[in-house]
Design brief:
Nucleotidyltransferase, domain 5; 2 domains; seven-stranded mixed β-sheet; five-stranded mixed β-sheet; 12 helices; about 35% helix
Length: about 350
């Protein structure tokens, strides 16, 4: 029996969708929403009908009948902490995303859009590996400041999918192995997978800087800058995420441009880009200690993992810990679809959101 699955991934200015038949991608597209269109809405939730209709209109144009679907999966939004894996979308989940999400984010529309389309198709809607999936150990939550406990926020969807892929390559099950996975994209986060569970993370504000994020910076100096009178809260948040990292140092977030600058002899660009690799390597070493160095493989994934220059610098510093596997790309649509395919095949069980 074959299964057709619709995957939906809302982003800030686009809604990505893909149809899979089992492991085969039938088609995928990114439905772009102009800034002018987005600005019409006061909140993310107000965009629901516009984005839902955009998805349905595209499927109609493609001549795809939603009654062919076996399931619909949406990107897991900013729920209170949940487990990894699949959840059936229910009314409580929708109410939580609508009334008390952890933060405003376009991914909060993944479940509602999936639910509406699934209802019309007569099938179930799911989310898979929410951004807020949290399996951290108690010891990992201690930060040093009781007011600010550490929380699990990392690129769970892609990192877990590539860890499963590498485990299969090694001829083992995911829950038999230990991995340190670095997601290298517009934001950078890392996590450590111990026998099928993400037990600790380095979030995008705890570790390496990224194309537009500042990453971990000295706390005392950060506090002084906050109270210097030069910047308001909005500007400071933008310095941390949006105007930090490569953008702050080199005025670009495009790693390909940075590499061209390096090839042209720009020493500052080389220093900054290699510093990014250096910091990622430090974070990998940090997480390796969580499993007492018993790491089966280190995985580099995300868009920046396409860069041979960057990955070679990282590999040189960490391959003494474990073999380094490079699985470049975001893989988000595939990860969503494959997760629900495992549910439909009975290889995984979907949780009920409570």
């Amino acid at each position: 029996m074959t299964y057709k699955i619709l995957a939906i991934n809302p982003g800030s200015t686009s809604t990505k969708i893909a149809i899979y038949e089992d492991e085969r991608e039938l088609f995928t597209t990114s439905l772009e929403h102009s800034p002018e269109e987005i600005e019409k809405y006061d909140s993310i939730q107000d965009q629901f009908e516009m984005r839902r209709d955009a998805v349905l209109n595209f499927l109609e144009e493609k001549g795809f009948d939603i009654r062919e679907l076996a399931a619909v999966v949406g990107r897991g939004g900013m729920l209170p902490p949940v487990k990894t894996g699949a959840y059936e979308v229910n009314e409580l989940m929708l109410k939580t995303l609508r009334e008390r999400p952890y933060m405003e984010h376009a991914s909060n529309l993944g479940a509602p859009i999936a639910y509406e389309i699934a209802k019309a198709a007569g099938v179930k809607a799911y989310i898979y590996d929410s951004v807020r999936a949290d399996e951290m150990t108690d010891i990992a939550r201690i930060s040093g400041m009781p007011d600010i406990p550490r929380m699990s926020t990392s690129h769970v969807l892609n990192t877990r999918a590539v860890a499963m892929k590498v485990a299969k390559k090694y001829g083992k099950r995911y829950d038999e192995m230990n991995f340190v996975v670095a997601h290298l994209g517009g934001g950078i986060s890392l996590n450590v997978h111990e026998k099928g569970r993400i037990v600790d993370i380095v979030s995008d504000d705890e570790g390496a800087f990224s194309p537009e994020g500042s990453g971990r910076v000295p706390c005392r100096l950060l506090i002084e800058l906050c109270y210097s009178g030069k910047y308001d809260k909005k500007a400071m948040l933008k310095k941390l995420r949006g105007n930090g990292g490569l953008k702050a140092y080199l005025r670009t977030t495009d790693a390909r441009k940075v590499e061209r600058m390096i090839e042209a002899g720009n020493e500052k660009a080389r220093l900054v880009y290699e510093a990014l690799a250096y910091q990622v390597a430090k974070n990998i070493g940090e997480l390796a200690t969580v499993v007492a160095g018993k790491v089966d493989a280190i995985i580099l994934t995300g868009g920046l993992a396409h860069s041979k220059m960057l990955t070679s610098w990282i590999k040189k510093r960490v391959e003494f810990i474990a073999p380094v596997e490079i699985v470049a790309g975001e893989n988000e649509m595939e990860s969503l679809a494959y997760g629900i395919l495992r549910v439909l095949r009975g290889e995984e069980e979907a949780r009920i959101y409570k």
